[in-house]
Each structure stands twice: as C-alpha cells, then as structure tokens.
C-alpha cells in the first residue's frame, strides 16, 4: 500500500546546509525507505537561484521516494501543508554586528516564519530550528504560532550531542555504538554543557573510563567550541555534520529513540529548574512522535553551575528579544 507523502519545508534551501540536507531526505535517510516525501524549498529572492539549481539536481537523482519539489520565496506558500519544517536559513553575524543587531535581524525572519507556520502548516507540524542563534530563533517562531502546541518547536543541539559522543569514543578508543547517556544542556553556544555524569562508554561509566579533569575541563571546551574549531580548520562552518544532525533529530522525533537517550532543545516546563517556556537543551527520548525530557537524573554541584550559566544566557537572549518587541 502506498503511503501519503510527508511534506517537508526547508528554509535556506539555496545555502550550504540546505543543500547537504535535501538529497539525504529525498533518498529516505530521514523518514525511512517506505515513506514518500514532498519538498518545499523556501528562500529569499537572493537565494532562489541556488535553490533552483539544487532542485534541478534533485530531478537528476531520480529518487523514487521524491513525489515533488516546489520553490518559493513567500513563507505563506512555503509552509503550506508542511508536516515538518526545517528552519535552516538565518541572518549570520557579520563584522561590526552587535548581539542585539543579530537578534533583531533574526527576529525579522523567525517571527513571520512562525506566524506562517501557525497559519499554513499541517496540524501535526514539527519544527526544528538550525539557523543561529537557534534556541532563541525557535522561541521567537514559537511565540508567533500561539495556536500550535509549544512542544512542536525545537532547536538543534544534536550536532553538539553527536560531537560529544564522537569525542568521548575517540578518547577511550571505543566504538560510538557503546556510548549512551550523554546530555547537552542549555544553549547551542559556547556556554552549553556537555555532561558525562550519567554516560556510559564501552560498558562502563564514562567518568571511570576517562580522566575526570579532562571530562570536566578540556572535553567541555572542545565540544562547546567545536563549531569554531571547524571554522578555523575547514575555513567555513560545519555543513555536512550539521545536516546530518538535523536529519538525526527529525528521524528520532518521528520514528522514536527506543531506550537510547539523546539531546534536543525543547520547551521547558520547569524541568531541572530551567524557567518555563525557554527552549533549552535537555536529555530526551522520543516515543509516539513526542520528545520527552528524561527526568530524575541527579545533578551535582558542578553540573548545576554549568547548567545555570548556560540557562542564564538563554534568559538574557529571551529578555533581549522581549525588549526589542520581537516576542
Ligand atoms: P548559508 O549562508 O550557506 O545559507 C543560508 C541560506 O539561508 C542562504 O541561502 C540565505 O539566502 C537563506 N536565507 C536567509 N534568510 C532567509 C529567510 N528569511 N528565508 C529563507 N531563507 C533564508 O548558511 P549555512 O551554512 O547553510 O548555515 C545556516 C545556518 O545554520 C546559520 O545560521 C549557521 O550559523 C547555522 N548552523 C547551526 C548549527 C547548529 O548546530 N544549530 C550548526 C551549523 C550551522
Ligand atoms: C556550529 O556549531 O558548527 C555552528 O553553530 C557554528 C556557527 O557559528 O555557524
């Protein structure tokens, strides 16, 4: 029996991460080999040629699961009927730009996009924000779609999570398959806290397998500043790994994680002392199409301090966008 296609809107489709994402989605890597998909590529006028070129290449791949590709520079058209919205396009920080300028520029993008999602997308729409500052952009979009459950708006910290898994496995000389229980807490920024307190690697507690000073010092810095390291070494920001993480996030959200834990920035209902309404990274599992925050993990004094510091940054960003009238 053929299944109804899922409509996926990708913003920033003419950019790098959009390009690295759409071919994998169309090949079935995100929703499975039995799920047809329709792609909606949303850009701004300056980015349309890039998106058009990518659409030509999608045709040339002849993906059996791809039922159609539509392009638009109008959010009201781009989000029509979307079941999944991947908000990748954003306004990057450029020389001389203050944090308030960056938040204001992105507010002008994510406010209207959130409104269009609320008005046009399918009732079951799930939103993942990749464009930075991802957590606060997700909050802005969520606040403009008051008729949708807030839980449908999430931000990407899976890239940080995957980095944390890869770097721990490399330190121990173990397979990534043997790593579980890592948490990224807080903001997708240098204040994030990659936490090994409850992690296992190669069938032993991670904190027994590695030097504790490393786990609570150099490791945290390396994960939290990995984006900057990639920019320095590669000469450009993460692309394939960011696309891969966005695909992992949506796949796990829709198809479930089983017992495995991962990290995602989801709306807080006050868990672990994170103020209600913030979109902050937590330990999560997904089942039945919903992320569920893993509760009851013990938080020691060191972890408490690191979580509080990153959450304080999210509070400051939320207050700044409130002052700018963006939410
Ligand atoms: P890019 O500059 O190559 O592409 C961005 C695209 O977005 C451009 O084509 C641009 O025209 C488009 N765009 C801008 N405003 C838009 C709008 N209002 N609607 C639709 N499209 C719009 O950038 P990239 O390398 O693809 O990165 C995209 C974003 O992802 C950046 O903000 C980057 O900082 C962020 N990022 C996030 C993570 C994460 O883990 N959360 C990781 C890597 C990169
Ligand atoms: C990353 O984590 O790789 C990006 O968020 C870095 C960036 O500033 O684009």
In short:
It comes from Leucobacter viscericola. With 327 residues, the chain is α/β, with parallel strands linked by helices.
How would you portray this structure in words?
InterPro entries: L-lactate/malate_DH, Lactate/malate_DH_C, Lactate/malate_DH_N, Lactate_DH/Glyco_Ohase_4_C, Malate_DH_AS, Malate_DH_type2, NAD(P)-bd_dom_sf. It catalyses: (S)-malate + NAD(+) = oxaloacetate + NADH + H(+). NAD(+) binds at residues 12-18, 106, 113, 130-132. This protein has 327 residues and is an alpha/beta fold. The protein folds into two domains: 6-155, Rossmann fold; 157-318, L-2-Hydroxyisocaproate Dehydrogenase, Chain A, domain 2 (Alpha-Beta Complex), CATH 3.90.110. It has helices spanning 16-26, 48-61, 75-78, 99-120, 134-143, 158-172, 206-209, 212-215, 218-224, 226-234, 240-255, 301-323, and strands at residues 6-11, 37-42, 66-72, 84-87, 126-129, 153-155, 179-180, 183-185, 193-195, 200-201, 204-205, 262-267, 279-287, 290-293. The strands form four sheets. The protein has a six-stranded parallel β-sheet, sandwiched between helices. It has a three-stranded antiparallel β-sheet with strand order 7-10-11. Strand 13 (279-287) and strand 14 form a beta hairpin. Helix 6 crosses helix 9 (218-224). The protein is globular and about 50 Å long. The mean pLDDT is 97. The protein binds nicotinamide-adenine-dinucleotide (NAD) and (2S)-2-hydroxybutanedioic acid. Residues 11-12, 14-18, 42-44, 46-47, 50, 88-90, 92, 109, 130-132, 134, 156, 159, 188, 237-239, 242 line the site of nicotinamide-adenine-dinucleotide. (2S)-2-hydroxybutanedioic acid binds next to helix 10.
